[in-house]
Design brief:
about 75% helix, about 120 residues, membrane, transmembrane helix, 3 helices, transmembrane
Length: about 120
């Protein structure tokens, strides 16, 4: 549960307890409908506390799913990077032919020295 959720839950609990105290204190002296209204208002706090607990669980589940998805995407990125690197290494000689015989890349395994023949 985050700090904000804890604060809101504490406020819900405090208001619910205060309304419960008011219901008990005014049960015999005030109009019955006002005591019932305060009791029902106190139930809203209980519902709010339950809602905050549900939201905390959802946040936790979402964080776990995001972490899993991030790991899966990282594996896919590594596989894509390997495929691109392989394609680039194979394209060195193709670049050599299309650049009218300019030098191969320094890392090319098929690099041959230029001949002096014209």
């Amino acid at each position: 549960m985050s700090t904000g959720s804890r604060i809101v839950t504490g406020l819900y609990a405090a208001v619910t307890l205060w309304l419960a105290y008011c219901v008990v204190a005014t049960w015999d002296t005030a109009a019955p409908w006002s005591s019932v209204a305060m009791a029902l208002a106190g139930l809203v706090g209980v519902v709010g506390i339950g809602r905050e607990a549900l939201l905390a669980d959802e946040r936790r589940r979402t964080a776990v799913l995001r972490e899993r998805e991030g790991r899966r995407l990282a594996r896919q990125d590594r596989a894509a990077e390997l495929a691109v690197r392989t394609e680039l290494e194979a394209a060195c000689c193709e670049r050599w032919w299309t650049s009218l015989g300019a030098d191969h890349d320094a890392e090319c395994a098929r690099r041959t020295p230029r001949s002096s023949a014209a």
